[in-house]
Design goal:
Elements lengths: L1 E7 L4 E9 L3 H14 L4 E11 L1 H12 L3 E5 L1 H20 L1
Parallel strand pairs: 2-3, 3-4
Antiparallel strand pairs: 1-2
Length: 96
């Protein structure tokens, strides 16, 4: 299962992702997030009860975070994963 929802607000866009962030779903998620970013407003990516993220999915989230998207996790696994990804992005930015 995979569901993505985009809400364009006045000051920011929220992209909400549910389910599995793997395989063929990655292209859909990246396209949606890149389109949201092109509007020029800040983008928040909210991972709601995401049950699985493969390595390419993690790499996508890191790329989007480096591009300025803010990651948020809801649920135990997702919150932990988002904290770990943010730490990895912060470390890469500091060493650059």
């Amino acid at each position: 299962m995979f569901r993505i929802n985009r809400i364009d607000g006045r000051s920011r866009t929220v992209v909400s992702i549910d389910g599995r962030l793997v395989g063929d779903y990655l292209h859909v998620a990246e396209t949606c997030c890149r389109q949201a970013m092109s509007a020029g407003r800040p983008v928040d990516i909210v991972l709601n009860d995401v049950t699985e993220v493969d390595e390419p999915g993690r790499a996508l989230l890191v790329r989007l975070a480096k591009a300025g998207c803010r990651l948020h996790g809801r649920g135990l696994y997702t919150s932990y994963m988002v904290r770990a990804l943010k730490s990895a992005v912060d470390r890469r930015v500091q060493t650059s």
